Amino acid sequence: MSAIRAYLKGLVEEAKRPASSVALLGELVPRPQPRRRFEEASLQALAESIRAHGVLEPLLVRPLEGGKYEIVAGERRYRAAQMAGLTEVPVVVLEVDEKAASAIALMENLQREDLNPYEETLGVLDLLALELGKSREEVVSLLHRMRDEARGKVPQNVLGSPEVQKVEEIFRLLGRMSWQSFVQARLPLLGLPEDLKEALEAGSIPYTAALELKKVKDDALRRALLEEAKAGLSLRDLKAKVREALKREEAPRPWYREVAARLTRLDLEALPSEKRRAVEKKLKELLELLA
């Protein structure tokens, strides 16, 4: 088993260990991680709890140069402690390298219940990328090849490989879903339009609603349906409305709208003189008829 996976398995035990030290908040440095936003109300609630009871779970940190410590896990507690007016917090100091620290940070965030589906998807991909030594895009490609091979669409050349075994083990460690479910339900979130991505990250719609709305290509119609979904429209009713929207998108455009569209692109000066005179005559007749 790789060192990364060993650290992942030991993360829960590390988090439950009694604090080995305390650190001044000014000595702590957050690290980049999949959690992109912290809800203000949630932080305020945690800060109130910390004022009353203190920081109950120590932060996991690793030493840096100059007497600083990088927060490997526990940035939310760090931010809430700042809001609560604390000057120091309990910590567990880990002697880990950058690769292991990244894996632990990703794993800790993926275990949080309030990590939204889009951020969770990126976190899983980043964890797989770290373990496999690949880019996020290469991991997505590998997962798609695994799916296609499992469905019998391509010759067997991926499943059973050491890379796939690592993928399967990571999903077992996470314990949230299988890699098959991840490919089917989560990878499509990567191609969401910006309005759906923002709504999903804000927690105003579930990921199932986002995947339904993604099917609607008409921006104005999708935005209208998005507002209904935010207001509490059920997934069943949303699916029905999306089906109707898709029918309208697939229906051929009425002939007169096609004529109008062509007229907006028409360059009379570019037409041969005889054809131009005939078109101008018809347009004048149409103008008189509509007047």
Automatic annotation (TrEMBL):
Any matching Pfam family: ParB_N
This protein's UniProt keywords: Plasmid
Listed SUPFAM superfamilies: KorB DNA-binding domain-like, ParB/Sulfiredoxin
Gene3D superfamilies (UniProt xref): 1.10.10.2830, 3.90.1530.30
Domain ParB-like N-terminal: 15-110
Matches recorded under InterPro entries: Chromosome_partition/occlusion, ParB/RepB/Spo0J, ParB/Sulfiredoxin_sf, ParB_N
Protein family: Belongs to the ParB family.
Name under which the protein is recorded: Chromosome partitioning protein ParB
